[in-house]
Structure to design on (905 residues):
């Protein structure tokens, strides 16, 4: 198992490098101009100077290797320096965002907490809601509970978040005034009062995301349970005289979890990439909002770095999913 | 009777109490202010950004020598007074201008502001490797010299009738030499701390800056007016979308001020009905127009001749066709659909300041299909069996480009239909704004290259002087392949009379005569139907009803008088 993990990790390195090159070339080929958003009063000659100052004068391959060096060496060193306080990265060049002209690493670090809180909570609550719904729906197939669960899942699937989000804001912020419509990223949780404010501002975006995630995962859970409930080993377990509770919650559930865990693990990188629409509606300035903003502004270093991090996370969680698979199902051994 | 009079007196005194309380406003007495910019601010150094949002946010920290008030008049800001020919501040040959700083000015860190800071600002922005966005503000300057601690002399290369461009307005503020002296040229982006929290002279100081997210300000303890600013702290939130920002002011009251609410007219109207906020609209030089190409852009031509003056446009060089296209458009309807109260139909090239807007062209505001058809008949275009006109075997067919934007696509569809009614076939294209307004010389789709017959976009000019804007339409100023397509004579207009009149304007120092010349140039341009003005677009923001002191300003930053904003108390 360990061998397998190490082998997969080593294999991941060239994969990730090729991905980064592809992203870089695609972004470079895509039409667009970082100065296009500026007011038309700024003349073209000045725009050319701005582009040169951004480093766009170099050929694409030079820019790629510069970026790769900064991404793989300088940025990790800076992160280390910030965590430990050791002076390991004096005066090394960092990846600068074209919009703010400041290191992208710092901005990403600033955005991670709110993304993890809001999108992460949305995912977590989604799972917590989805699993029981999926299990009960399957066990009591075609009961009113199953019908209701199916209905909610269909709503969560088919109604887009830009609709549910706005409806929730209208009802709970504008009419009832219970929750704020805008997320305040400067809020620090220091006491009970500020904790309650944090909870209140998280309620709406987390509900929207939880509904969406729960819809998806509960359907997987239900389908997987249904597959297993009709298996011979379930009949055997019942024939042995095991309690129904043990049959369902131990025998059936453990086997049914295998595909569901894979789906959940593969969904984790999407937590980090943020939820672009939800973040925009509730003004949660997380990683999703950062990415879409960078795309609008043609801020290539920012897009490149974010997409690269997402690529690494996806490769990593694929590996984690495989490993968990092996743990859940002792029959699967990779060595 | 006497008792009654006493009672009346007491009542009157009570009524006066709030007024007295208001008069005693002092620094910080209004508490906290919440501002929302749905397009979030990326940096506090306007020289490194060029965007309007960064210019506005930095304008409450960094200040120029003089700025424009809401009427577009110059007001001395860090300067003692506005230098003019009369007070000797501007030399007789119009080549030098001498600014004197106010006495006792302090930076927010407590050190004195000197003329050396002004000289340094010029050096910072004109550094060849700095990529300063407002570098053209310093064009044509020979030298900037500090005569003493409080006096700065700017010498221009040529006689300059309008010397109020460098260090004037929100795009040309003064930065502190001590803070930025190691940030010149290529090192500019390395000074993140300085770029995010510049030391300024304005009413506020940055306490926390998060790029593209939120900024926190507190009152500058060294601000020159001891009773101001009235708000102690400001949270300048960013992100979300325009609808959310409007909702936060009009409906939930979470925000006090929201910037740039370009929303559909019916959305604004509905939100406004809540009564919690008011819309602020004012009209500056921003104008939506259709440019008509005077050159042939046929794809059969080689790339280095396509869209150049070598090949005149086969259809649009005829003024009758241009006039017909203009007559067929209902500008009032377009304005109502696209902009509602935030737009005004117009027939002028120069739409503001009001004194420079020509009163002579309003006849184009009425759609006149009969006249349009007549003009095309006269020009020899005859209707074919499908209703589209032809002449000598050529169909009257135009390619119409614009950027991707819901309002612009509505306009395109309406105009296509009107033009169809007069027998003109229009093919529509919309191009991503990042490409259309980009300046990649290899892209065939930029608005500068203009490889289409007509295109629609909005443009404007800085400050209150339209001279440079009018200059753009001179012969020889058109974008050309041999110069990698810079130039702003987008439609490749060329009229020697226009050039001569512009040269006269550029020499003229007398303000009244300048106004006449601007109007004459405007009339010459639009009566030649060289382009088709459609809508003058306003700046649109919103404030909550209990926010006082806000004066909308289209000539400078909207926050030009931020120090005077206050909370209205009952």
């Amino acid at each position: 198992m360990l061998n397998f993990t190490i082998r997969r990790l080593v294999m991941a390195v060239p994969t990730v490098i090729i991905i980064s090159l592809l992203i870089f070339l695609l972004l470079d080929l895509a039409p667009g101009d970082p100065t296009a958003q500026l007011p038309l009063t700024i003349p073209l000659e000045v725009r050319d100077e701005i582009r040169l100052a951004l480093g766009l004068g170099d050929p694409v391959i030079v820019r790629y290797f510069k970026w790769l060096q900064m991404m793989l060496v300088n940025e990790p060193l800076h992160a280390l320096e910030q965590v430990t306080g050791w002076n390991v990265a004096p005066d090394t060049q960092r990846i600068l965002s074209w919009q703010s002209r400041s290191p992208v690493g710092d901005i990403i670090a600033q955005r991670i907490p709110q993304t993890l809180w809001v999108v992460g909570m949305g995912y977590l609550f989604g799972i917590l809601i989805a699993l029981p719904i999926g299990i009960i729906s399957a066990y009591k197939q075609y009961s009113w509970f199953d019908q209701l669960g199916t209905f909610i899942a269909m709503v969560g699937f088919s109604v887009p978040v830009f609709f549910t989000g706005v409806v929730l804001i209208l009802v709970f912020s504008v009419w009832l005034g219970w929750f704020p419509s805008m997320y305040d990223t400067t809020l620090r949780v220091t006491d009970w009062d500020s904790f309650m404010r944090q909870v209140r501002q998280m309620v709406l975006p987390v509900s929207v995301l939880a509904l969406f995630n729960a819809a998806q995962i509960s359907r997987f859970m239900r389908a997987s349970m249904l597959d297993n409930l009709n298996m011979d080993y379930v009949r055997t377990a019942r024939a042995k005289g095991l309690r129904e509770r043990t049959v369902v919650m131990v025998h059936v559930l453990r086997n049914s979890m295998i595909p569901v865990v894979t789906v959940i693990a593969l969904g984790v990188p999407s937590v980090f990439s943020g939820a672009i629409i939800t973040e925009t509606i509730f003004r949660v300035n997380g990683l999703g909002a950062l990415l879409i903003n960078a795309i609008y502004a043609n801020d290539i270093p920012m897009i490149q770095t974010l997409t690269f991090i997402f690529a690494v996370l996806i490769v990593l969680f694929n590996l984690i999913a495989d490993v968990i698979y092996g743990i859940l199902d002792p029959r699967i051994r990779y060595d | 009777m006497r008792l009654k009079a006493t009672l009346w007196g007491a009542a009157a005194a009570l009524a006066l109490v709030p007024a007295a309380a208001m008069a005693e406003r002092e620094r910080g007495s209004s508490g906290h202010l919440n501002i929302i910019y749905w397009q979030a601010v990326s940096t506090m150094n306007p020289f490194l950004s060029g965007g309007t949002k960064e210019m506005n946010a930095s304008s409450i920290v960094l200040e120029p020598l003089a700025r424009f008030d809401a009427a577009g008049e110059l007001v001395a800001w860090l300067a003692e007074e506005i230098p003019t020919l009369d007070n000797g501040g501007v030399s007789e040959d119009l080549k030098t201008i001498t600014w004197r700083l106010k006495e006792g000015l302090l930076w927010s860190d407590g050190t004195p502001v000197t003329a050396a800071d002004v000289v340094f600002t010029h050096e910072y922005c004109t550094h060849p490797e700095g990529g300063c966005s407002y570098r053209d503000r310093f064009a044509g300057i020979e030298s900037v010299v500090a005569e003493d601690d409080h006096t700065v002399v700017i010498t221009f290369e040529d006689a300059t009738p309008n010397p109020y461009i460098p260090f004037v307005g929100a795009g040309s503020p003064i930065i502190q030499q001590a803070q930025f002296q190691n940030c010149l040229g290529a090192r500019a982006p390395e000074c993140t701390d300085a770029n995010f929290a510049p030391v300024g002279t304005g009413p506020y100081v940055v306490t926390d800056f998060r790029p593209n997210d939120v900024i926190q300000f507190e009152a500058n303890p060294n601000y020159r007016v001891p009773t101001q600013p009235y708000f102690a702290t400001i949270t300048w939130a960013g992100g979300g979308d325009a609808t959310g920002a409007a909702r936060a002011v009009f409906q939930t009251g979470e925000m006090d001020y929201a910037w740039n609410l370009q929303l559909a007219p019916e959305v604004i109207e509905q939100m406004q009905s809540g009564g919690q906020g008011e819309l602020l609209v004012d009209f500056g030089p921003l104008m939506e127009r259709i440019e008509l190409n005077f050159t042939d852009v046929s794809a059969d031509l080689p790339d280095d001749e396509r869209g150049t003056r070598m090949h005149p446009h086969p259809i649009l060089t005829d003024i009758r066709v241009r006039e017909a296209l203009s007559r067929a458009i209902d500008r009032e309807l377009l304005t109502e659909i696209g902009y509602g109260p935030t737009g005004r139909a117009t027939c002028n090239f120069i739409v503001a300041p009001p004194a420079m807007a020509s009163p002579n062209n309003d006849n184009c505001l009425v759609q006149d299909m009969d006249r349009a058809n007549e003009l095309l008949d006269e020009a020899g275009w005859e209707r074919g069996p499908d209703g589209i006109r032809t002449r000598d075997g050529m169909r009257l067919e135009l390619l119409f480009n614009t950027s991707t934007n819901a309002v612009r696509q509505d306009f395109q569809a309406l105009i296509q239909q009107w033009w169809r009614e007069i027998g003109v076939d229009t093919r529509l294209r919309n191009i991503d704004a990042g490409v259309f307004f980009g300046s990649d010389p290899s892209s065939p789709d930029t608005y500068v290259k203009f490889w289409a017959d007509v295109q629609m976009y909005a443009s404007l000019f800085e400050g209150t002087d339209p001279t440079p804007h009018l200059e753009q339409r001179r012969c020889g100023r058109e974008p050309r392949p041999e110069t990698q397509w810079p130039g702003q004579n987008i439609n490749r207009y060329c009229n020697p009379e226009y050039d001569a009149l512009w040269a006269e304007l550029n020499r003229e120092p007398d303000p009244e005569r300048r106004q006449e010349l601007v109007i004459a140039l405007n009339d010459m341009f639009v009566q030649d139907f060289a382009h088709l003005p459609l809508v003058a677009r306003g700046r649109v923001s919103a404030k909550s009803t209990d926010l006082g002191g806000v004066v909308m300003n289209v000539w400078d930053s909207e926050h030009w008088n931020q120090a005077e904003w206050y909370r209205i108390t009952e």
